[in-house]
Predict the structure of ROK family transcriptional regulator.
Amino acid sequence: MVATAGRDVVRALTDERVVTALIDRGAQSRADLAAAAEVSRPTSSESVRRLVEVGLVRETAEVRKGAGRAGNLVDLGPAVGTALSVVVAPEGVTTEVLDVRGQVVTEQRVHLRGSRTRPSAAVRQALRGQGGGPHVAAAVSVADPVDRTTGRAVELADAPFLTGSLDPRTLLAGVVAGPIEVDNDVNWAARAELAAGAPGDFAYLHLGEGLGGAIVSEGAIVHGGRGLVGEVAHVVVAGPRGKAMPFTEVFAKLGLRQRDSTALDVDAVLRLLDRDPGPVVRALAGVVAGVVAFADPSELVLGGPWAAPAVAPVRAELSSYPRDVVVREARVPDDAASRGVRDGAVALLRDRVLEQVRGTLGP
């Protein structure tokens, strides 16, 4: 019994090495696969046989070009499946089908800006046109806070982008046969920044049409009790003429909001930062001071469309503060949330595949 259990463990470890080599390096000959997995050719061939039986691996009819004998290649099989990346943003909904190597298989976009279509309906519409299954994992980015327990969008007062009671897990339940991770867009942007080499402890502030933050501690996103960590729009700061007010109200007082909306007018903010950055920068520095006091980040990262011109004046404003912190622009300045959610979807898929490998052997 013990010997049998030991053999099963060795087989599972071998299968995991083989699948990992195929994920990382693509289709290979049996000889190359054995070398990449660091096992003998007979051991590799036996692993391939087991994995072909459960659909995780297949032998292709593709012939290798160049010198040497032609032969079949070993590649991942249909049971590996795909992942869905879903981004619900003010301008619209984007869904992508991704393979386990992170390549986009198909993509759908449904525009929302200027439309009466509700985000939930737009998600359904995008999913109807999406192929490339079976989908066995999904990651969803929402431009609103997300309740960490239910995965539903949370509507806060004066939020510029109301997605309604969006429930991505319910929307995707009949489409995705596996884990579904839902988070807000700023947290996904912070994950992209972490993947780009940021230290394991930093604070991220998104400066765009909306205002938001994320805290990364010991390499992980801090969500808090309900998932509302980083909602900085209502932090009380010094506004025009030194009057205390919520951060978002500073922009209203300065005439920097879009018409009939609490969303910021980015072009107007950029013009003011170029002409007279003081009022915005002092308010932003007040938010930063609070974040630094409570989270003690090693870096303060500014991302979003008006982050670049804010970095230098914020540094100058903070120079007189008692707590020192590095302030810099994001390493991933463009489309950070989309990159983060895409990477998250692929990571979920990869974990799912390796779980399948570990579960292929019977007792």
About this structure: The longest strand covers residues 82-89. The first helix runs from residue 2 to 25.
